[in-house]
Amino acid sequence: MTATTAACGGDSDSDSSSGKTLTMWTFKQSHVKALQKVAEGFAQETGITVKVEAYGPDDVYVTKVQAAAQTKNLPDLFEVHTTGDDFAWGGAGLLTDLAKDVDDAWLGSYLETVRKDGLVNDEFYQKSLAQDAKTKGIQVGQRWSVPLTIGTFGIVYANKQRLTEAGVTASPTTWEEFISALEKVKAKNPDNGGVTIGFKAPTTGLEWFLQPVAYGMLGPDRFHALFGKDRAGNFASPTGTQVLETYGQITPYWQAGTQSLDIDAADLAFAQGKSSFDIGGTFTLAFLAQNGMDPSNVVTFPVPAPANGAIKDLSLAPFTLTGMSVSATTKNKAGAIQWLKYLAKADVSATFAKEALDIPPTDLGADPSAAVGPVLGAMIAAFGSGASAYNPGDTSYKPGAYDGVPVASTLMDFSPLKKKSAADTGAQMAKQIDAFWAKQ
Amino acid sequence: MAVSTIAKGPSPTRRAPSRGRTRYRRSEVAWGYAFVLPAIALFAVMGVYTIVYGFSLSFASWNGFTPDWRWVGLKNYADLLWADPQYAPLVHQAALNTMWVMIAVPVLTVLVSFPLAVLLNSVRRLKTVLRSVYFLPHVTSGIAVYFAWVYVLQPDGAINLLLRSLGLGSLQQPQGFLGNPTTALPTLIVITVWTSVPVAMMLYLASLQSVDPSLIEAARVDGASSWQVIRRIVWPLLRPITAIVVLLALRDSLQGFQTFLIMTNGGPGNHTNVLGLQTYRLAFLSQLSPTLGLSSALGWMLFVGALILAAINVRALRRST
Fold it and tell me: Phi and psi for A249 in degrees, rounded to 5?
């Protein structure tokens, strides 16, 4: 789907070349209106209008940028997946290095935990040297983006009304409580009491669900070892089998047919009441609200860890999900940077967040609910840090050219498809991860 | 004398181009080229350039963003066929699935479309209406129809509902026909056959109408039953059409992937991945990985496969006629 929207009038090429208009591309349809709204204030303040164009879903966006790069027809600004698109496009020479422009005063606008996101450090540089690395060409010290939204994966959305009807009055805090809640809701709602996740993108099951459970179960070091080469601790090991068997307890509670749904369809099924639980991220709420789900009927909690796991109070650490990058071909770099600085202002980013139902990278004060509403506010309040918080943005323990799709497809053969045993699945996953290590 | 006369006159063995050169004026030649030039330019850009570009890409590693390609020689081909533990197993599984599709789709298409064409040819009333009805799947094929099929095949879709209401609950698929790895590929094969039957049926129908009625009449006079007429006269006469139908179905099975992309995206897991879809995935769904060269290499291997199939088919066609 492609949607094109002009934030303000006057979108001619002459305006663009004279610096009066900036063109910005995003892959997030839910961000268009919010960006438009804050762009109005920016236009009043600076006289520069921002034209926001959305191209989605993600693969369409990437293809659009590929084509535009070949025809040298890039916009002034991009919304990017941080430490993903930004590094790949920066390394390929499509973006402006912002390292010299982003000073301490600017960085001070962001939460301390995300200030370094978008900056190439030695770890990312070393990963870029792998044979099939996606980020070839990056150098230590380059900054290819600044944060726009933060958040995390591994959040369970539950239908509040159905939980209550089934006698589940408190959000589950352990894996066992979660399974018990699933059992109760499923018993009360046999046809629509299950869990949905967008398995058509197989990585959702692995990265949004299994990984947080495994992290809480094993703790940081043993969790990282699952993705290592050592057969004594990786997915092929008894520990790996144990993790998979725990994850497999969810199998009876998958909503029928969830393995055929993409992420939007899975969220939609939840919004329409065809399932009672949905696994997503902080960004899922905006989609649910857009599709008619009443946010007050939603309970959210992090994917919980087993009660006897290594981490007793598992939480989720936020990281920068999307950032803003400036094109290398922009004719108005100064205007583009002005726009990025404007977006980093606390009041502007709060307005954006409220409109987009997404979480900004700025400090929203002691009561984030006042700025972004109770559901999003509760998610922000539940963010953690340190060793007890699982950070999906940390990929330091994975091989440089790692691609989760084949590994996650194998996991699907175990759950929900029940085609393989836990041990066989673990052995196959370890073999696939080994293939990435071989390219290191 | 005679010799000198022959030497002076136009030689009967002189080549035609030499004569042609003297016949056309330069302006005429220029006009000729001017008329041909747009077609040549179009072919050069749309044909030669893209073919050379695509073929070159199959020897390179590129993610579509970097200004330069990294030349890797034949590595892409080797990686896809056996060398890379990440890509080779995917290609092998996709090749196996493609093989099943290539066997099932042509066979089922012929098995459905030929009898249908014979029946339609023998119908006296509502022939045009029935032809239109049976041609509808071809006219309506497209993204919307595939999405409609997805809904119909879901756990709470019309097929399961129909089976339940007919008392055939044991045939229902609780996970949906596309959610069960055992039924997903056969279901997609059926959908592919559903889309390819109309054209095959029209080809058979057109050919049936060109069969000399006196042949059939003679057979009837000799006491042949309807089955014998179809088996011994009509089927052999229509063998060239069968060859065309099979070739078209094979080509679609080998290179087509839209149905698979829209309906399952190769899932659940990887159980309905086919080579055409794998090519597309490597080109456009591998996020930022430098796999455009791999995609091109796989595309060229499919092209060679299609070429071999076409050659076999042409040979079979010649033999049958």
Answer: -65, -15
Indicate whether A219 and A265 sit together in one domain: yes
Four-residue CA torsion sign, B144, B146, B149, B155: negative
pLDDT at B141: 65
Q: Do B265 and A200 touch (CB under 8 A)?
A: yes
Interior CA angle at A285 toward A283 and A289, to 5°?
A: 135
The stretches in chain A having pLDDT less than 50 are: 1-15, 17
Of A65, A257, A413, the CB nearest to B175: A257
Specify the pLDDT at position A440. 76
Q: Which of residues 53-112 of B touch A (CB under 8 A)?
A: 61, 63-67, 84-86, 90
Chosen from B50, B53, B63 to mutate, greatest number of chain A CBs within 10 A: B63
pTM of the model: 0.85
Closest residue in A to B294 (Cα) is A132
Q: Does B50 touch chain A (CB under 8 A)?
A: no
**A76 and A196 inside one domain:** no
Looking up tokens 């055939």, which residue turns up?
B168
Cis peptide leading into B268, omega within 30 of 0?
Answer: yes
pLDDT of residue A227: 96
* A47, A19: one domain: yes
Distances in Å between the alpha carbon of A2 and those of A5, A56, A78, B60?
10, 6, 15, 31
**The domain that contains A192 carries what CATH number?**
3.40.190.10
Q: What percent of chain B has pLDDT over 70?
A: 92
- Compute CA distances B124 → A209, B128, B218, whole Å: 62, 10, 21
Taking 70 as the pLDDT cut, the residues of chain B under it are: 1-22, 141, 320-321
Chain B residue numbers with beta carbons less than 8 Å from the beta carbon of A136 are: 66, 290
Q: From CA A153, how far away is CA A263, in angstroms rounded? A: 13
β-bridge partners, A155: A280, A302
CB contact under 8 A, A200 and B150: no
Question: Choosing among A94, A132, A197, A403, which should be mutated to test the B contact, i.e. which has the most B CBs within 10 A?
Answer: A132
Q: Which domain holds residue A103?
A: 2-151+319-381
pLDDT at B6: 42
**Cα A292 to Cα B252: distance, rounded to the nearest angstrom:** 41
Tell me the C-alpha distance between A70 and B224, whole Å: 67
What is the count of structural domains for chain A? 2
**Contact yes or no for B155 and A256 at CB 8 A:** yes
Q: Please tell me the predicted confidence (pLDDT) of residue A352.
A: 93
Question: What pLDDT, in 10s, does the model give residues A17-57?
Answer: 456 899 999 999 889 999 999 999 999 999 999 999 999 88
Choices 1.10.3720.10, 3.40.50.300, 3.40.50.720, 2.40.10.10: CATH for B80-320: 1.10.3720.10
